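Q: How would the structure tokens look for this protein?
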Amino acid sequence: IPRQFNPVTRYFIWNKVKTNYFDYQIKTYWLDADEPEKSQPELQWWYDRHDVEIAMVWAREHQRTFWDGLREEKEEEEIIMLSRQAWIGSHRMNVAVWSGDIDSSWEELLKQIKVAQNVALSAIYWWTTDIGGYRHDDLDDNQFQELILR
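A: Here is the predicted structure in token form.
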């Protein structure tokens, strides 16, 4: 896992992204899976704090990698990134958040309403749900179609 708290690391990663994507006119980024899937207590990141102490702030620093690089390259253009995770300050980097891969069910849709309210209370104003299209086999099922329309 890259040490995103180190500006040298962020610069190195951005230069790889710039060379392989930005220079080919790819200027909007979907930062999927930018949260560690599990805590790694033995890792020390930020001010010698362990992984469990800093929680998901790593993702914000990963977003900063792209924000700083894009600001340097796209001085007059709007910047937006899509991420599956946000942290305090992510909104200042124009990070839009989505709920991640969710199941296609009415129960999950109800949970998403609660998630949306909590995200809004966190001052993150760009949020969307995955609409529940992640795991479903029968696209012709009327119940599934109704769920997606809602």
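The first strand starts at residue 29 and ends at 31.

DSSP finds five helices and four strands in the chain.

Upvote if useful.
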